[in-house]
Design a protein that fits this description.
The protein is of the alpha/beta class. The chain is 33% helix and 17% strand. α1 packs across α2. The protein starts with a strand and ends with a helix.
């Protein structure tokens, strides 16, 4: 493991946004009820932790990192939500364009977070069944989202295509920064391969839920991957459902 650190994150709620086909920018989200002082404090703290992660990854010294991936031992530990929030904040704070990529063909869900079509996605594009612009959804001024598509049956072959060309060469336009939702490590055969494509990787652990043995197994499989750190998520969300929608 390289430079492993431990980052405690406050919560892992659920993100929800609407989206439109590129290049159309999404409409403003519907107005939500005002935040209480406590809720606003929780939301700010969560966002600041994610911003700290962005700064330590992409802007630390002479950092050459342009891709950050989120993985976990098993499915359901909150990595997709954390990848989405991190990408949203990075896109808001950075002058560089940001692309959020889904490489999890076992449990694709990015399309649900942003309200974009599940198909076509990466799989269909690499199969030459659609154009690249058909899979790129501009969900805000500076953020593009690419869904995984239907690639479960040949995920390893798809990842090999990406590996041969390089992740940045395949997906980055100009000086894009990439945030990637990766498959789980212990329960997905190709999770380790996918993680190896990234400049930096975060392991998400659902505190008190994921068995220690599976966490150790995931860490062992990531021993040759640039693992930046471990994010500990709480089991129960303390953020109301309506508040999660604006994070």
């Amino acid at each position: 493991m390289q430079n492993q650190s431990k980052i405690d994150v406050v919560d892992t709620p659920t993100l929800s946004h609407a989206a439109a086909k590129p290049p159309t920018i999404l409409p403003e989200p519907r107005k939500l009820q005002p935040l209480s002082r406590r809720d606003a404090s929780v939301a700010r703290l969560f966002q600041e932790r994610c911003r700290q992660l962005n700064l330590s990854t992409f802007y630390q010294g002479n950092s050459q990192v342009r891709s950050l991936g989120f993985t976990s031992s098993i499915n359901g530990e909150g990595k997709t939500f954390l990848a989405s929030v991190t990408a949203n904040l990075l896109a808001n704070d950075s002058s560089q364009p940001v692309t959020l990529i889904e490489c999890n063909w076992e449990h694709p869900s990015i399309h649900e977070y942003y309200g974009i079509p599940a198909l076509p996605g990466i799989a269909e594009w690499l199969h030459h069944e659609c154009r690249e612009e058909d899979i790129r959804y501009q969900v805000s001024r500076n953020l593009t989202v690419i869904p995984a598509g239907n690639g479960r049956k040949d995920a390893v072959r798809l990842l090999e295509q990406i590996r041969q060309r390089g992740l940045l060469q395949v997906f980055a336009h100009k000086n894009d920064l990439l945030v990637v939702d990766l498959p789980s490590i212990a329960t997905t055969a190709y999770g380790q391969i996918a993680a190896s494509l990234l400049d930096s990787v975060i392991l998400v652990v659902n505190t008190g839920v994921t068995p220690d043995g599976l966490v150790k197994e995931a860490c062992a499989k990531l021993s040759n991957v640039p693992l930046q750190g471990v994010i500990l998520n709480q089991l129960q969300s303390k953020i109301p459902r309506w508040l999660r929608q604006i994070l």
